[in-house]
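ok new one. same drill as before - structure tokens go in, u give me an amino acid for every spot. 345 of them this time. try not to just spam alanines like last time pls lmao
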């Protein structure tokens, strides 16, 4: 399989600077003052996206195609899976943020003159927008790299480009413990069934979800950190709740549109977990979450941890009140539209 792991800074949409999403976070010293071309990596232009990352820090700034496909000598390579990863704002670990399938990778940077929507920024990778997935923030949990103690070998380290072939042209053995994470990422991408931020509607839903956890004007990074911490806390509370009741639990939040599968006495149930700081008189639901409730009938559960208290950098221990709706049937009379998408052409 032809695959490239490419590290970029952390953004919400990668569709150019937007209020609250002005530039990549953790993209290196350059991003402290400049936007960085990766800010446009998921902007669809005439059905295509154009990806950029800094392969390395020394000239010539080229991608080693021979480490993607052994013996490759041409100036480009087609049908590559490109996995984009970035630093998680909470624990500083590396996580998958999205991917291109069937991508074309150019050895040298491409300098366009006719892509004004992305400010004519350079790119190395081109793919069809329909072959790309940008994960919502809550789904950016799948790790890149192993966690084996005592060695950093076979982890991306400080490199922005990570290949399946080494400098000698030898392929990595994915059966080895140090490399197993690579096979896991490939399986994850192939089996992913969750949401992708692809439309304007998806962007609005993501904005609403992040705003609910707003830190009061402290900026995108703080809002994202609060959201991830509160959602993680709610997941931990939910798992502990059902373990005490004798359920087997499978966390599928990384790959499905819901969060957990519960199994007990041959019965299977599906759980959507919500963590919020306010009282549970009302919650924000995405279209996908409403559809889930409607399609799964009596097997869907809504598990809410509300009134969660955030400290300066973490959720206050023991905070949060549990509310369970089981079974969860969305009542259309209780749904209130917050906004509409109006297509003017």
């Amino acid at each position: 399989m032809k695959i490239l792991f490419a590290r970029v800074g952390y953004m919400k949409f990668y569709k150019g600077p937007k209020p609250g999403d002005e530039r990549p976070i953790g993209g290196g010293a350059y991003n402290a003052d400049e936007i960085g071309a990766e800010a446009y990596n998921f902007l669809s232009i005439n059905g295509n996206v154009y990806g950029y990352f800094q392969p390395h820090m020394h000239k010539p700034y080229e991608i080693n195609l021979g480490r993607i496909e052994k013996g490759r000598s041409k100036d480009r390579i087609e049908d590559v899976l490109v996995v984009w990863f970035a630093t998680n704002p909470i624990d500083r670990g590396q996580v998958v943020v999205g991917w291109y399938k069937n991508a074309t990778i150019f050895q040298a940077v491409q300098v366009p003159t006719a892509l004004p929507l992305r400010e004519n920024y350079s790119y190395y990778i081109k793919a069809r927008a329909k072959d790309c997935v940008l994960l919502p923030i809550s789904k950016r949990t799948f790790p890149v790299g192993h966690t084996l103690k005592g060695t950093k070998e076979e982890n991306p380290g400080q490199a922005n480009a990570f290949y399946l072939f080494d400098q000698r042209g030898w392929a990595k053995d994915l059966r080895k413990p140090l490399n197993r994470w690579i096979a896991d990422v490939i399986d994850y991408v192939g089996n992913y069934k969750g949401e992708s931020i692809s439309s304007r509607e998806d962007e609005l839903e993501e904005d609403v979800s992040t705003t609910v956890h707003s830190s009061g004007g402290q900026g995108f990074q703080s809002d994202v950190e609060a959201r991830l911490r509160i959602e993680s806390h709610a997941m931990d509370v939910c798992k502990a709740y059902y373990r005490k009741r004798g359920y087997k639990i499978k966390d599928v939040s990384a790959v499905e549109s819901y969060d957990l599968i519960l199994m007990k006495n041959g019965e299977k149930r599906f759980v959507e977990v919500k963590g919020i700081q306010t009282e549970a008189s009302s919650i924000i639901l995405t279209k996908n979450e409403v559809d889930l409730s409607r399609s799964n009938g009596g097997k869907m559960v809504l598990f809410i941890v509300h009134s969660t208290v955030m400290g300066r950098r973490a959720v206050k221990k023991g905070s949060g009140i549990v509310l369970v709706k089981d079974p969860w049937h969305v009542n259309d009379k209780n749904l209130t539209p917050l906004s509409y998408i109006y297509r003017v052409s």
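The helical segments are 180-191, 200-211, 220-243, 287-295. and btw The first helix runs from residue 180 to 191.
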